[in-house]
Amino acid sequence: MVQATWGAGEFTGNGIVRGVWTGADAKIQRCIALSKPFGYMHYIRGVGAEAEARFFAVNTVGYLHHGLPAVDWEAADNTAWGDTAYLDRFLSRYVRLTGVHPLVYVQQSAMASIAPVASRHDCGLWVAQYVDDAPTGYQSHPWNEGAYACAMRQYSSHGRLPG
Questions:
Q1: Residues contacting residue 155 through CB under 8 Å, at least 6 positions apart
Q2: Can you tell me whether residue 117 is helix, strand or coil?
Q3: What digits encode the pLDDT tens for the residues 89-116?
Q4: Whose C-alpha in 37, 125, 150, 162 is 20 to 30 A from the C-alpha of 70?
Q5: How many C-alpha atoms does 141 have within 13 Å on its Cβ side?
Q6: Residues facing 154 on adjacent strands
Q7: How crowded is residue 99: how many other Cβ atoms within 10 Å of its Cβ?
């Protein structure tokens, strides 16, 4: 999963220029060249749901139907955090623009409020919940597996895979 866009073009810093990470395309093109599946992600900043959805769609149009889009919904740097209507408007607009239903990334502690919104738009949940902060590799049965339904589980923020 490659973080590709932030907000609606208003943010520049840390390799992000006007809301687009300058390193994203190289990573994605490498995945394509190696025939590896990939995903691309938008970080919601709370600067306008419809504007952010359009920004994500326009700036990743070349990846549409080739990779898996995802939306990063978390508290840090997101003025809309806690406003599920904002996420609802974003998803509605993105699906209308692209015809594609993205994954919605959310921490497990906010899953109960976000799951109905994601479900309304036929979007899968990518849920993050960590047992600790230690680096780890692939686990076939990670901690808390099966405790709740999700399309994708993230069990480490320091995952390491060979290759």
A1: 128, 129, 130, 131, 136, 139, 142, 143, 144
A2: helix
A3: 999 999 999 999 999 999 999 999 999 9
A4: 162
A5: 1
A6: 128
A7: 9
Residue 146's CB is within 10 A of a number of other CB atoms, namely 8
Question: Does residue 25 carry a pLDDT above 70?
Answer: yes
Single-letter amino acid, residue 74: E
**Taking each helix axis from N to C terminus, what angle separates 49-59 and 84-98, rounded to the nearest 10 degrees?**
40
Per-residue DSSP letter, 13: B
Q: Looking at residue 35, what DSSP letter applies?
A: T
CATH dotted code for 2-154? 3.20.20.80
> Could you tell me the pTM of the whole model?
0.93
Report d(CA 144, CA 131) in Å as an integer: 9
Residue 45: burial class (beta carbons within 10 Å; 0-12, 13-18, 19+): buried
